[in-house]
Amino acid sequence: MRGVGVLQLVNHGIPIELLEQVKKVCSESYKEREQDFKRSEPVRLLNRLINGTDGVSEEDLKKCDWEDVFILHDDNEWPSFPLDFKKTMKEYRTELKKLAEKVMEAMDTNLGLQKGYIKKSFSNDDDDSDEPFFGTKVSHYPPCPRPDLVTGLRAHTDAGGVILLFQDDEVGGLQILKDGRWIDVQPIKDAIIINTGDQIEVLSNGRYKSVWHRVLAMKDGNRRSIASFYNPSYKATIAPAPELSGAEGYPAFVFGNYMSVYAKQKFMPKSPGSWL
To answer: I need a labelling partner for 46 at 20 to 30 A (CA). Which of 10, 131, 146, 187 fits?
Structure first.
């Protein structure tokens, strides 16, 4: 995972029956949203471009993602359809959060840090009740008539800590950037993809890289993607671990301040000297 920033985990311990149920409820929930997506900005822009409408250019579509998405966390409203969506996703998120913490402990060991170092760094030192944030992004990438004109999800790195992705095992489209080349991440049935975000790159002083990735729009198939994010508290101060000295020179910053910048620059190039 070092130097690449991504791996596919098969023996993760999450019951296969639960994963099958997650696929089912997420796919069914999209059926309630499908008509809204057909009226969305990316669809309208693409249709206008195809039809030769004045005032629409390919550049306009480069700023869009061919993606239907909603976010789940402990304090927001969840879809009520299907009826077993909330129960299933609550159980799934509990399992994913435990897996994320196991992954972080493995990183602690691999980096020569004290067990629990990364998790503790994600909390606010001034308030023990201010814990790391755990969210889940449920996405669908519907069939696109002109995938040459629009991207499913534009190239970016993830802002947070550890990302656990349960991707579609039939419809591909996920790519990572390695050595200047885009490489397909081939679907493996019931695998959980682990990738590291910007905060892990900083904490590890560059030992773990935050991987650039994107999703291609596809002409056939409706790609399902469920990404869970174990992120620092907004008030947590993130900096390279003192034990991991080196030449990268990442600055220390408050995660909430970083997110304010990331929201504006998510799809722009970044380097150690331009985090804030």
So the answer is: 187
Instruction: State yes or no: cis peptide before 82, omega within 30 of 0.
Output: yes
For residue 174, report the phi and psi dihedrals to the nearest 5 degrees: -75, 135
SS3 81: coil
Q: What is the DSSP letter of 248?
A: -
> What's the alpha-carbon Rg for the chain, to the nearest Å?
19
Strand order in the sheet with 133-141: 6-9, 192-196, 162-167, 223-231, 133-141, 68-72
Quote the distance between the C-alpha of residue 37 and its chain's center: 20
Q: Which of 202, 155, 160, 150 is nearest to 44 (CA)?
A: 150
pLDDT digits (tens, 9 = 90+) for 50-76: 988 878 889 999 999 999 999 999 999
The SS3 of residue 36 is helix
Look at the block and give the residue holding tokens 């994107």: 214
pLDDT at 41: 94
**CA distances in angstroms from 195 to 8, 68, 75, 104, 125, listed in the order given:** 9, 22, 25, 11, 26
Closest CA to 99 of 163, 171, 21: 163
Q: Which residue has the tokens 């991991």?
A: 244
Give dist(CA 276, CA 260) in Å, integer. Answer: 9
